[in-house]
Amino acid sequence: MLGQLQHGELAKAALMAGLFFLVITTLGIMRPIRNAFALDGFAASEFYKVYLISAVVILFVVPYNRLANRIPWRWLIPVVAFLFAIILLVFRALYRDGSTTFGVVFYGWYDLYAAVMVTQYFMMTQLVFTTRDAKRLYPFAIAGGSIGAVFGAAITGFFAEIVGLPNLLFVASAFVVAFAFSIFYVLATQVREEPRSEARSQEKLTAGEFLTVFRNKHVLLIASAVLLTVLVKQLVDAKAGDASFRYSAERAGREILYVPLPDNIKLKAKVYIDMAVEKGLGKGLSALVIFAAIMFIDYRQIGFVAVGLGVIWVVVALAVRREYVRTLARSIRGRFASFEGIFASMGDASTVPVLQQALASGDDRGIAFALDLVDQADPASARPLVKDVHGLLANPSPRIRERALDVLTDFPEDTDWQRVRDLAEDPDE
Questions:
Q1: More confident residue, 292 or 48
Q2: How confident is the model at residue 384 (pLDDT cuts 50, 70, 90)?
Q3: Of 86, 87, 276, 383, which has the fewest Cβ atoms less than 10 A away?
Q4: Region for residue 9 given its phi and psi (left: phi exceeds 0; alpha: psi -120 to 50; beta: otherwise)
Q5: 8 A C-beta contact, residue 359 and residue 408
Q6: pLDDT digit string (tens) for 236-274?
Q7: Cα–Cα distance measured from residue 289 to residue 287, given in angstroms and rounded to the nearest whole number
């Protein structure tokens, strides 16, 4: 993996991996603490009831989106992190052994914290990574998070009895403060330009906008897959490896699914799905499903419900894949595909065929736009399309022939120079 890094990228990769390590370490520390506090007031068989408190996360999505539209991310992210660190200290001061109210409130707050911090981290990567960077550097960042999940859980496991479970909130707060200070350094030394204004419109966010975002079929399918994932996870109450998987393979796959969406809804959809659907609606609906299940079947048979939901998830996943390809094709035909987004998925098996279809479409505007996408991509990602670009050397449009020649200059070793020399006889000067 180190061999993929270009000159000067090691420091950036290490910084971003370190930041994600800090974020996920705090989750690893607090996750068992959250469960222990909640169990103080509930019997193990009634633990599912705390999932209902997580539904309040939905209430914070619109206010957070408004802040994100008004405050530059380079300020919003560290300020929110500092605020979370202070709240952790407040929780420690208010802790009362065996308090049901405290346990339930902390459980819901943890889900809000996890949703906001992880979402903010992936938003911040858009300030630091170019899309060409992202393909090489995301694996390092995600690896940092996977290590953090294990490290955080180990801290709680080894030191809970020594310092006391409530006092580990001080440790978690220290990691959050370290994250906030690190952000200032990273954004001062590594930051690119803020995302384009159309991606962060200043329009007011309302419940109506929520419905507008989810009218997009691709967004709805992503949300459905995430919701089913949460339901199954809560039904089986998976522990081992859950955090590592959720912040590695599952998260990376989800980020790719957002690629073909128009910029004006992409970021809003990410916030709604990561916060409202995954942490809010998902947890609340899980509680209702578990409550309904134990009314009609023995609790030991709930696993069958999870299997049924898992089958539905597979069906939705296949639908997501089909819709991803359709949305990507529409984004190219409609010329709203983003240079900053399309390259992140150039290595995906579904992306290259869509661009091949666009290059062979016969639509001059679509071909020109697809050529722009190929030209902006890194050579390794665009190389599978060189043969298709060669085919455009015989296109009826002189402008397309000229543009194809220009693109081929980036691939001298793959160019059919005989076909290029034949263009010396081209009727267009």
A1: 292
A2: confident
A3: 86
A4: alpha
A5: no
A6: 766 444 555 555 566 667 777 777 777 667 777 877 887
A7: 6
